[in-house]
Amino acid sequence: MNFRELLSDPQEFAGKPIPSHLNRIIRQTVVKLSSNDRAPQIKLSADGMVATGERGYSVIRGTHGVSRGTWFYEVRVVNQPKDSHARIGWSQPFGLLQAPVGYDKFSYCVRSRHGTRFHDSRGYHYQEPYGQGDTLGLLIHLPETHPCAHYLPSTGKHLPLVRFKSSHYFEERDDLKGAQAALTPLVGSKLIFYKNGICQGEAFTNIYEGTYYPAISLYKDFTVEANFGPNFVFPPTGVEYRPMCERAEMLIVEQCLADMLYFIK
């Protein structure tokens, strides 16, 4: 019996909610800054590429994350009013939104002021400051240390399904303490930043294993524009990488594979 026949069977689902396993997660087809995974005070342009802060530090993440391979994206400083700042880098989903990137154990960044690198609220001198007109390049390298199936996304089919307005969502509880306890350094991983095409060296090595999203935190009216490729202003040289824009199609394929494996198992 196919899904259409199953859904049309009045005996099977009459008066009952549609089971979670008959739904699938929708993945965005374009990598951009997320309108959902952000602090509410951050203003986002219609195309999802330009973000402006307001008041204290707050975070916006990209729509797609990576857990293996070497990936790159750029951020251009569009406007930097007096006393405004930014901290830009990478963050796992549990990274706080109402704090700067690099505030917790789940995120890493470089600050515009003094060029300081931050992780877990600890700052260290790293590079020269960056500001209006500068382009910051961000490269992440995550060695593949598990079988391919380990990196497949969740199907969500084991989770309860909830209806909100006109859409359905898989509902999952956050386990922050469990996620913190499970943090393990990924040997060989590294983060490298570039300022206007000039490599600043390794900012962090052996970062915690996990899925990392492009992450931007803004203080006051600092404005930036993200570029997820494929055409970069200052593409890295001497290193093989993939532009973050390629992650969209790759994730759709992985999601389909994960869904098929769910039913096979």
TrEMBL record:
GO terms for molecular function: methyltransferase activity; transcription cis-regulatory region binding. Its main location: nucleus. It holds the Pfam family SPRY. Signal peptide: none annotated. This is Set1/Ash2 histone methyltransferase complex subunit ASH2. Keywords: Methyltransferase, Nucleus, Transferase. InterPro entries: ASH2 (IPR037353), B30.2/SPRY (IPR001870), B30.2/SPRY_sf (IPR043136), ConA-like_dom_sf (IPR013320), SPRY_dom (IPR003877). GO terms for cellular component: Set1C/COMPASS complex. One of its GO terms (biological process) is methylation. Residues 10-205 form the B30.2/SPRY domain. PROSITE patterns: B302_SPRY (PS50188). It is found in: Nucleus.
